[in-house]
Amino acid sequence: MQTEFYRIRRLPPYVFEEVNRLKAQARARGEDIIDFGMGNPDMATPAHIIDKLVETARDPRSNRYSASRGIKGLRKAMAGYYARRFGVKLDPDREVIATLGSKEGFANLAQAITAPGDVILVPNPAYPIHAFGFILAGAAIRHVPATSPEDYLRSLDRAVRHSVPSPTALVVNYPSNPTAQVVGLDFYREIVAFARRHEIWVLSDLAYADIYFDEANPPPSILEIEGAKDVAVEFQSLSKSYAMPGWRMGFAAGNETLIAALARIKSYLDYGAYTPVQVAATAALNGPQECVAQMRAIYRTRRDVLITAMEKAGWHIPTPPASMFAWAPIPEHLRHLGSLEFSKQLLSHAKVAVAPGLGFGEYGEGYVRIALVENEQRIRQAARNAKRFLSMARNDSGALENAE
Q: Best label site of 48, 268, 272, 301, fewest CB within 10 Å?
């Protein structure tokens, strides 16, 4: 009987699993781990959203199968969000679809538009699903250096010229996970022109659209660019904006051909999210938005505490302009360890969990990602723990091994 399955063989070892295993072992021993590893929002979902969920769940009719592409009211609310936030007009019937979180939508669209052997251009470092969604669909991935937006743009032309067959799609993700970098409309203008010139689809991940710290310059949407709907679709999520990660509610918007392809795949795979969840998501998008600003303020405060406290601990971390992450270079005297070993040592000696940069691609090596999912007191404690660890490592190169 075959036990080596094709799609499983295509997946590389999960880099984060080793750190997760050590974290679980430490907690089983009763150790208090300050966990910055996963971007799992810890704030409460706003009360008016929960109230709408409960109200709708009391109606027996809401327990029936829902609509895989999302109920009409939710798709209208999603279109309304784009009109309000970006000044972009969308047809809720043809240019918007609800998804079970942005991750599911991204992976299913990859299945919908990819044939085995297709070449896909993916930024590196990047959130893993950006590559693995297409790998599972049978594509060949061409990793494009994305240490900066400028680097990514410069590298795209070379990637197209040296890809056989020609690429069918490219991925962009700003504000970026994991690097927290942002772009303006000029970047998207170049991406749209490039995609139209080479007849390439664009998949834009805008999950962190509402988590930004320069109030005068909120992150734009690629759909604001003239002609973007001809080539692009954009994914969003309610997980971060409204502290709804476990609700699994997101959406895709843009090119109607791509939306129709995703709808066709989803119609075979799911009946959509539980109707009360969709109604509550509608209430989130249509309701008061002060809660989003409040969450953004909490992330900003946590960011500032992290940067200041770690600087005092001897670890310089650039200030992220957006997202719920800091992309932290490994301190110079420990860079030789690499991101995976550094993450393991930080967990072992400082009781602080982070995500190794290598898990986001080869160009993530030398960094770790720190999620702003602990409160200010815990962040300061993490910095004190890190300071002792960094000092020990600086003073005695053998101390790390001897302390095991």
A: 268
Rounded CA gap, 348 and 356, in Å?
Answer: 14
* CATH 3.40.640.10 correct for 47-286: yes
Q: What is the DSSP string of 144-213?
A: EE-SSHHHHHHHHHHHHHT-SS---EEEEESS-TTT-----HHHHHHHHHHHHHHT-EEEEE-TTTT-BS
Q: What is the pLDDT of residues 226-261, one digit of tens each?
A: 999 999 999 999 999 999 999 999 999 999 999 999
pLDDT digits (tens, 9 = 90+) for 27-73: 889 999 999 998 889 999 999 999 999 999 999 999 988 888 999 99
Q: In 3D, which of 364, 389, 354 has the Cα closest to residue 16?
A: 354
CATH of 6-44+291-402, one of 1.10.472.10, 3.90.1150.10, 1.20.1070.10, 3.20.190.10: 3.90.1150.10
- Locate the domains of the chain by residue range: 6-44+291-402, 47-286
CB-based contact 46:291 (threshold 8 Å): yes
Whether the predicted model's global pTM rises above the 0.90 cut:
yes
- Residue 171 CB neighbour total at 10 angstroms: 25
Tokens of 59: 């109606």
How many Cβ atoms are within 10 Å of 229's Cβ, its own excluded? 23
Collapse the DSSP code of 328 into the 3-class scheme (helix H, G, I; strand E, B; otherwise coil) and give the result.
strand
DSSP assigned state of 72: H
Is the preceding omega at residue 165 within 30 degrees of 0, hence cis?
A: yes
